[in-house]
Amino acid sequence: MMRSIWYDGMMGLVTGDALGCPAEFCTREELRERGGVTAMEGYGTYQMPPGTWTDDSSMALATLDSLRNRQAAVPKDIMDCFAAWKAQGSYTPFGRAFDIGRTCSEAIEAYQKSGDWHTCGRTDEHANGNGALMRILPVCLFLIRQEQKKELDEEQALQTVQQVTALTHGHRRAGIASGLYYFMVRSIVQNREKGSLKELLQAGLDAGFRYYDKNPENQEELKHFARIRSLDAAEKIPEEKILSSGYVIDTIEAAVWCLLTTDSFRSCLLKAVNLGDDTDTTAAVAGGPAGLYYGGENIPAEWRNALQRREWIEGLIGAMDARDAEC
Fold first, then answer.
1. Burial category of 30 from C-beta neighbours within 10 Å (exposed 0-12, middle 13-18, buried 19 and up)
2. How far is 89 from 181, CA to CA, in rounded Å?
3. For residues 212 and 209, what is the distance between their CA atoms, to the nearest angstrom?
4. Average model confidence (pLDDT) across the chain
5. pLDDT tens across 283-320, in order?
6. pLDDT attached to residue 1
7. What is the domain count for the chain?
8. Which domain holds residue 265?
9. Residue 117 is part of a domain; what is its CATH number?
10. How far apart are CA 235 and CA 45, in angstroms?
11. What is the mean pLDDT of residues 106-127?
12. Which of 49, 82, 115, 222 is spaced 20 to 30 A from 195 at the CA atom?
């Protein structure tokens, strides 16, 4: 069976989000005291049934729907989809938005007032939460396909990643985080049968740092990413030194660390969730690359089958597969 990057990546993201949803904001110690998360649970933080996914998936699926409809990354259309999510409950499990991050919410409200996608995202240093990183995967996959078909080059792809990130998170640091994620995802998609996950992640990061190192204006910001330059060093970081807050640096570090220190989709996502705090986003950000590497067929069936609105999600994914088949 031919593997689908859309199924592997998006189902990995949504499954990670849903796995982490009930434990969001629980500390690592609290989770440890109750035996840790070991299955797709329900209720907990938001009192929602098992398989409920949150803002991470809603914004990623809204982006995916925009890509499907426009056959391009169109910032205004993506923001229209975000506005429909926030105001009307589109792209949600039960018809209402919940767990909306403050920076994303403010950007959507600014867009609703002005209609200007260029200026709706904050650009100050506080705009470095993980609310753009968590939703950038479908854009990455779309651009990777465009690069493969030579419809655009790397520079154009990275400009688009930056543009879509800045819709809500306009600081340079958030943009670099999304860009490094793009390079890691691209490395897995293009070479997933040719190396270990660690090798592919390192190759992607090496390419990403080469790209960002070329611009002297990035140097101060790149210092924040120092712990993931060398994955030999990163995988040796003890768990107590891995943070799992909503800060974009903590999230990308935690996701990479979970990918490095596990050997299956199941173990990677359980480790991500059991880090505590921003459990859904850490697991969603790790879940995309994990799904791409291990394959959607290795996402535990009981997790996939529990996802709320699974058939609708699979329909969106199928539309992207059909588009790829036509090209």
1. exposed
2. 28
3. 5
4. 97
5. 999 999 999 999 999 999 999 999 999 999 999 999 99
6. 44
7. 1
8. 5-326
9. 1.10.4080.10
10. 30
11. 98
12. 222
Give the pLDDT score at 115: 97
d(CA 83, CA 33): 39
What does the pLDDT look like over 126-176, one tens digit per residue? 999 999 999 999 999 999 999 999 999 999 999 999 999 999 999 999 999
Per-residue tokens: 185: 């995802």
Q: Which amino acid is at 47?
A: Q
The percentage of the chain sitting over the pLDDT mark of 70, rounded to a whole number, equals: 99
Token digits of residue 149: 């078909």
